[in-house]
Amino acid sequence: MAYHPLDERSVAAYIRGRPEMAKVFPGGSPLAVREVGDGNLNLVFIVESAGGGGSAVLKQALPYLRVAGDSWPLTRERARFEAAALRQQGSLAPGRVPLVYDYDEEMSALLIEYLGSHEIMRRPLVARTRFPLFVEHISDFLARVLFFTSDLALSGVEKKALQAQFINPHLCKIQEDFVFSNPYMESPENRWNPLLDAEVRAIRADAPLKVAIAEVKESYMTHAQALLHSDLHTGSIMVNASDTRVIDPEFAFFGPMGYDLGALVANLVINCLSHFAHTPDPAERRPFQEYLLETAAGVWESFARKFEGLWIEAASGDLMPRGYWDFPGGAEAFAVFRQKYLRGVFSDLVGNAGCKILRRMMGIVSVWDITSIGDFQRRALPERLAIRIGRRWLLERGRISSIGDLLGIVREEARGSEEFS
Amino acid sequence: MAYHPLDERSVAAYIRGRPEMAKVFPGGSPLAVREVGDGNLNLVFIVESAGGGGSAVLKQALPYLRVAGDSWPLTRERARFEAAALRQQGSLAPGRVPLVYDYDEEMSALLIEYLGSHEIMRRPLVARTRFPLFVEHISDFLARVLFFTSDLALSGVEKKALQAQFINPHLCKIQEDFVFSNPYMESPENRWNPLLDAEVRAIRADAPLKVAIAEVKESYMTHAQALLHSDLHTGSIMVNASDTRVIDPEFAFFGPMGYDLGALVANLVINCLSHFAHTPDPAERRPFQEYLLETAAGVWESFARKFEGLWIEAASGDLMPRGYWDFPGGAEAFAVFRQKYLRGVFSDLVGNAGCKILRRMMGIVSVWDITSIGDFQRRALPERLAIRIGRRWLLERGRISSIGDLLGIVREEARGSEEFS
To answer: Inter-chain contact A222–B218, Cβ cutoff 8 Å?
Structure first.
């Protein structure tokens, strides 16, 4: 079938016409279809059998970037990357991503598991909902996917074969531009709170900061360490009280592990700051902000512990063969190497988290945590804090040696702002 | 034509049977063919028309690693990588590589320019021949190929398209094993001067050194900075008084620039040390050793100057777009970024040069500079020096901040050995 964008009326017939998709809905009851896409690149339909006989999400790539109309043409290959990444992640971290039922290359469409009892994480976090299993689940996902796609687990030949499948130039270009360059320079798509004009101008002319961002971008563009999700913010995570799923991995490619970790930490901190506007009562606000910071700390700490555990237990990659550490003192040397490696990942986390915060304040897309604060005046407080924190993370990343240091900067900046809240 | 290894008798008919190859030898005179391969992976034939009507080299990949007999099976795809790399390098650094006349995928054979008036650089360096244009030529090659295949010159999309063509898993695996792992552990193919047993044992159990080598290997395996030659020792360079050509780029892939630079510097230093045996008279030896060290310094300094010049003049890559540096103080910030970037390349040079020296003393293949010293006792002096120097480069690489520092360590160690020479 030649590519054409589907709509609510054409989805049911399309599904019935593909056996792999049709069999998700046994019984032949009519299919109820509703479009729910709030992304910028794709059509998303929830499909449910009226008779209760099955449900799924049909996701189709558009040939242009929706937020900017037709003016940013895109290739549709991201549907292929999304299907391949979901399958890869699902095999390495079972239960942490939606199941893939079918992928149609020509239509750039994939049919995946419908997560009807889950919510996109940003929204309940704004409503101060806690997810006690989240750290456990997401650190499993990160540790397993990143470890098992790295040179620590794979032979050089296996890793490069996988890497070749995830050379993803057009989607990488979006992150390269919109995370690491355009927000910090004159570019027509940039959007920001007009009350932040002075802050945005200052960032664009902050020479040491611009150098730091360029260094982090270099690493993003060249450091092919493991298969990243590459858009792992709290809008790409679906949660409920008992489950956590990572969705939307179309940006997947081989990059620095710290990019995924940094995206998640940055978005938890943005949510934390947004409560200065969402939750005016300090007695309600402070414990939840603390919960979010502890969650961010837990993400790193659990990731690092699990990742190192896998390394000790399951290392079979070319970096390094077991026999390399087989000498008197070798066990200790191996431990030093693991620590240095993880220190490098953490350092990447810090730099990327800084960029991920800043770009949301002055680039093409903000986040719902912030945009849902209607009043520009109230919104400016968390935004100013976020800019100060992102800037410090980037400039001080050489000295930030623990997650405690990193979040200490958040606490320091937030304390100074308590009087305004 | 189904793959079969050629021999001196079958080459002429093979060439006459392919129009693109045949036209290199106009006139139809008989072809004189002699096999000259001293490599480990390939058959190499020099083909000359008896009537003076043309000459060329025919190079054919073998399906196994020759040095170890049939026991290391290899894919023949390296012929494709060699042809693609020669074409890419030739277009970016014209005149610095042999011309490619034709490439036959099925036979894994390529016909390239015959450089009859050139020598493999190692040998004349052992004979104390100077090449006054070498630094100029090789720094052109390195600066142009590395710059124009990096994110500084290419858009992210262009770079990744090129990178996808040079995912080269099997040849990378050879370097990963034989440069970064096996020489420093028990492995049956390792060879060393038996007088160096103690030194080899010490290296294998040197915990900080093993960690340092693992870190350099991590960078080799993941840091996709530019299209490397990836085997740039003085056996891959052909020279005469007026010309310099880089050959044998079958290992080409996207890796850290410092790997190529480090390989070259390491091999110049090995040659320098080999003169403690080759050239017993200090009055003859010292000036030539000094020439080699100055050559090594010149390689880095000219490379860095030309690379930065290209960056200032021809930057059109996504790292960064010009407008990113367009602010008051932006020119200075851009200069800081260039310096930091080049400092990173230099740091990679140091670590890789250390590995490149050590592996030649205790791995699968030594170098002619050393093996041509027949007497194990005399050979042990440069070898011991080389091991000391390679080890110090790796352990001190965090403190070695200039090529002067790097070569200072060579001078220091060599001075200490003058009494033995």
So the answer is: no
